[in-house]
Amino acid sequence: MNGLPVSDAELHAYVDGQLDPARQAAVEHHLTGAADAAGRVAAYRQLNALLHDRFDPVAEAPVPHRLVFRSPRRLPWRVAAAVGWLAFGGLLGAGAVWQFGPGTPLAQARIEATLARPAGIAHAVYTPEVRHPVEVVASEEAHLVGWLTKRLGARVRAPRLDGLGYQLVGGRLLPAVDDGPAAQLMYQDATGTRLTLYLRGGVAGSETTAFRFADEGGVGVFYWVDGPFGYALSATLPRAELLPLAHAVYAQLNP
Amino acid sequence: MDDAGAQMLEQIPRLRRYARALTGSAATADDLVQDCLERAWSRLHRWRRGSDMRAWLFTIMHRLNANRVRRLVAHPAEYPLDDAHERVLAAPGSPEAALEIDDLDAALAALPDGQREVLLLVALEGLSYAAVAQVLDLPQGTVMSRLHRARERLRRELAGEGAPRLRRIK
Predict the structure, then answer these.
(1) Chain A residues with CB inside 8 Å of B166's CB?
(2) Which residue of B has its CA nearest to A52?
(3) B96 and B81 assigned to the same domain
(4) Does residue B1 share a domain with residue B83?
(5) Quick one: closest CA in A to B5, which residue?
(6) Tell me, what CATH number does B155's domain have?
(7) Residue A147 to residues A115, A136, A188: CA-CA distances in angstroms?
(8) What are the tens digits of pLDDT across the range A173-187?
(9) Alpha-carbon span A246 to A118, nearest angstrom
């Protein structure tokens, strides 16, 4: 095998690190005796380096916002929400994720990754806690809301869900993927069922989105972006039971 | 699906690099990347988990670019070409370096599309020959012959008339 003449294809494979290891020695031997081939190998390598010098800065540059968050259709949020609410009734049995209003699928993937998923994880981590479910309890609500407002950089409000049977337990500060901290507010009903409202800034610039639902490892999450915050309401409840709660939260945050 | 979406996002910088080198224009490149990402997203269910996400995205981009080039040929007026040699990257340090960038850009632009694709996927993106054959839907022998022709042509053009002008920029 090593006795075969060295082909052009093998010279390229040698340059590109794709040469059959069994032919490595034969090619190297050939290059010591063939100035023309050696010169070409050197030139090919220089060309590879030249291409990287020229174009690697593109890969190293920040990705333009529009590539991730381009909104081809910017529906006013109220319209999108109205469409969303109207459509919910008919879609409750449909697929796990649906989408309304503005935002590309990619932006939505991003929002799910930075909002729904961490919310679902935080829900799964903290709701089983018996002794330390929250950092600040509901009896210190004014302090809780003031503290979270200060840390998140925009006004945090704790919606009242008493009418639906859920009392505020309290809240905590959480690390977020980027763009500062997140917060989790926890609610509980008389049977001990807990739901959490996760909120964080910097989810998608100034974009607002309509409601979406995701199943995050068995935790149902309704999530949306509105104003400075992205919100995610999580519970291990059927979607149909979580929906009116999400509706109530949204209504209170947008009186 | 979440994993696939995250893997897609990770590939954006390399897609941009390839598209920029392929089209010669920053604006056209990002349009191509955008189209590619949206197309890929809509077909994510067809992506086989565990297979090479980057090769899959390059395949989509190759087809979109082929369509773009076809439209360009059919309706040249709708697609301005004046930015084909724009210099959008960090300003080169010297007129000599600028000349080399212009030389490289011009030499790349002058390559037949099929050769430029193969050269960039191999030399810039580091794909295996087998992966390139798959991305471009070509026999591997064709990949090798295009690679050879592209490299030989660039080698001669950048070397000029025997003068050793081929140097790295930095």
Answers:
(1) 43, 46-47, 50
(2) B124
(3) no
(4) yes
(5) A109
(6) 1.10.10.10
(7) 21, 10, 21
(8) 998 766 678 999 999
(9) 17
Chain A residues near residue B158 by CB distance under 8 angstroms: 47, 50
pLDDT tens, position by position, B13-28: 899 999 999 999 888 9
Q: CA gyration radius for chain B? A: 17
Q: pLDDT tens digits for A46-90?
A: 999 999 999 999 988 877 766 654 433 333 333 334 334 333 333
CB-side exposure of A101: number of CA atoms within 13 Å? 24
Which of A8, A18, A55 is best to mutate for the B interface (most B CBs within 10 A)?
Answer: A55
What pLDDT, on the 0 to 100 scale, is given for residue A89? 32
Determine the residue type at A184. Answer: Q
* Tally of domains in chain B: 2
B168 neighbourhood in chain A, CB within 8 Å? 46, 49-50, 53
* Single residue among B52, B87, B122 that ends a domain in this structure: B87
How close, in Å, is residue A47 to chain B by CA atoms? Answer: 8
CA A36 vs CA A42, A46, A49, A99, A115: distances in Å:
10, 15, 20, 61, 59
Instruction: Search chain A and give the residue with CA nearest B11.
Output: A59
More confident residue, B103 or B128: B128
- Predicted pLDDT at A68: 58
Contact A202, A210 (CB under 8 A): no
Are A64 and B124 an interchain contact pair (Cβ–Cβ within 8 Å)?
Answer: no
Among B14, B34, B54, B142, which would you mutate to test the A interface (most chain A Cβ atoms within 10 Å of its Cβ)?
Answer: B34
Query: Which residues of chain A neighbour B148 with C-beta distances below 8 Å?
Result: 8-9, 12
Q: Domain containing B66: what range?
A: 1-87
Residues B83 and B100 placed together within one structural domain of the fold: no
Distance of alpha carbon A36 from alpha carbon A16, whole angstroms: 18
pLDDT tens for each residue of A89-107: 333 323 223 333 345 566 6
Residue of B nearest to A116 (CA): B2
CB-CB neighbours of A50 under 10 Å: 23
Task: Report yes or no: B150 at the A interface, CB cutoff 8 Å.
Answer: no
